Each structure stands twice: as structure tokens, then as C-alpha cells.
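User: I'm writing a short report section on ligand binding and want a predicted complex to refer to. Could you take this sequence and S-adenosylmethionine and write out the structure as C-alpha cells? A short remark afterwards would be nice.
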Amino acid sequence: MEPSAFPGVYRSGRDLYTINALPGESVYGEPRRTEGGKEYRQWDPFRSKLAAYLLNGARPPLFEGIRSALYLGGSHGTTVSHLGEILPDAPIFVIEKSPRSFAPLLALCKRRANLLPILADAQLPERYAADAGTVDFLYQDIAQRGQARIFSENADACLASGGRGLLMLKVRSVSQSRSAPSVLAEARRELSAHRLRVGPVVDLAPFSRDHLALPVTA
Ligand SMILES: C[S@@+](CC[C@H](N)C(=O)[O-])C[C@H]1O[C@@H](n2cnc3c(N)ncnc32)[C@H](O)[C@@H]1O
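Assistant: Sure. The C-alpha cells for the complex follow:
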């Protein structure tokens, strides 16, 4: 097991791992491995766009200096369980609007002190901005129209000046008929209208088809 270019993320060959906060337990059936007295959970890039992004060309800095985070679209908590292990001292506010997904997310977060779940619609950041406060990192993985607008409005509400973010853009959720470059250009326009700077865009294929990762700086 070797440290990767990203603090808190480890590599063994092509596989990524994080240090298990609850040794002896997996979250989504992922393999675990013990080495040097530490237990690591394997991080599946086919289940997590953040892992796919790290493997496909993410560039540091990404997690350095982050003291708090806002995560939009928590679902059952697959990715956020790893993010919480990468940033063990950072409170991570996790927004999920589906009560069905929120139940397993809540069960996960109850056992992981830095994960703070909120049942809310990410289109209404005013409902949770006071709880989340100002964060250093904004992550969004929600499949619906208006993804760049939702990200921008959450950045306006909660992201610190100089803070970093990642928008996992699902091209097909924006439009069934338009090309990926046209959807990406529109997202860029929306983000820059909110004074957000977009770094090198990374295609998440073959792990996640139709998804682009947009690293953003406020
Ligand atoms: C692709 S899944 C997220 C997977 C998760 N990020 C992971 O990697 O473990 C998208 C989630 O976003 C949620 N979602 C969609 N629109 C939302 C909104 N407007 N506000 C909050 N959550 C939303 C869905 O209910 C779903 O659970």
C-alpha cells in the first residue's frame, strides 16, 4: 500500500483505498485489506465518480487544507464514506432529497462522526446554508437538469472565496439530444457567470459513461 498524490488516498497497483474508520466493516461490499496495523477499504471507481476522477487525471491540490465540505446528492453514502475518511477532521454536510436514499445515508452517518446528513433539495440552499456555514469544498453529483445552476447557487451560498469544488456533470441529464461539448460550454458559462473558474475537465469513462468532472475554484 502506497500513499497516492492525494493525501488520505492510498494505492496498490491500480486500486485506490482509504483507511477504514470502522475496521471490520464494509459499506457497500467493498474488499478490505490490513497492512501495517491499519485496515483499508478498496474504493470502487465504477461505484464512485470521485474515485474515477482520481484515476482518470485529477490534479492536486484537491483535499489539501479543507476544513469543511458540502456534498450534494449523498444517495446511500458510497462516495461520502470515503471522503469522510480522507478528511476525518472536517465536518461534511451531506444533502440528499430522496427520503428513500436518506434512510440508509442516515444510518451510515450516525456511525461516522464527521458526516452530517440533511434531508433537503439542493435547489434550495437557503434551507441549509445556515447549518453548513461557509465550506472549503463543494461536491455535487446529482443527475438532473440545471446541474451547473444548482452548483453555482450552492457555491454562492456556502463556498469560501478561494474554496475548491467538483461538479460531476451528467451530460444526458441536461439534454438527451445536445452534444457533450455544447452541454459543457453551457455549464462553463453558468459557472463563470458566478465567478467560478473551471480547471481541466476530466472524462470519467469507462467508469461512468456520460459524465465529466469539472474542478472549480471560487
Ligand atoms: C448519482 S446519485 C449520487 C451518488 C453518490 N454521490 C455516490 O457517489 O455515492 C444522485 C443522488 O442525487 C440525489 N438528488 C437528485 N436531485 C437532488 C436534489 N435536487 N437535491 C438533493 N439530492 C438530489 C438523488 O436522490 C440521488 O440519491
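A remark for your report: The domain at 44-217 is CATH 3.40.50.150 (Rossmann fold). The chain is about 30% helix and 30% strand.
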